[in-house]
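Journal club prep, shared notes

We agreed each person brings one worked example of a sequence with its structure written out as tokens. Mine is AB hydrolase-1 domain-containing protein. I'm keeping it raw so we can talk through how to read the token line rather than staring at a rendered picture. Sequence first:
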Amino acid sequence: MAGVTGTGWRERRIKVHVYLIGNSMGGPVSLEVAHSAPERVAGLVLASPAGGTHNQPLGRALVQLARDVLRESPRLVPVVLPDYLHFGPVNGINLFSELVRFPSLERLLRTPVPTLAVIGSRDPLMPPVDRIRELGRLAPPHLTVVMIDGAAHAVNFSHPGELAHVISCWLDGRDIVDDPDQGGVSRVLHLRPGDGRSAGSA
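Then the structure, token by token:
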């Protein structure tokens, strides 16, 4: 993750503020960029941002991953399996180990920019709701957490329409409410009264 700051991204002198959307491991990468160059980032959208103490040690994370596999749609297998096979099991374990060690929760609770985190209610790689609310007392007011009921870790695959709806509402500054035309039910997790960029129910 540390390599993000050494890519020359900051030296390119991008004049516009960008929104970064990171899924799973893309969440820690996006968080690292935002902490390294907050003046370049207008906001973050993190879908299933894994990593950190809930996934440690590695053995625990592997068990969580195995549980998630059983909760995902079988249609996901032909989508991801070729990439995993091409990357190789050793590289995969090493990369997953790096993800587990990354302090995602600490970075998220100290995010310097407006941030939306979207998690699935059936994702074993994410902390339980009660733990999220407990930790939410430490969260900044510009952090919004939304849960999609019925989704596991690959929320972008199982519930793409609902995820896109939530992101669109947040980016437009609208209240985040469930889209009845999409699968799953979205709800804002109130971390404390008045938190977040939108109103909703949990």
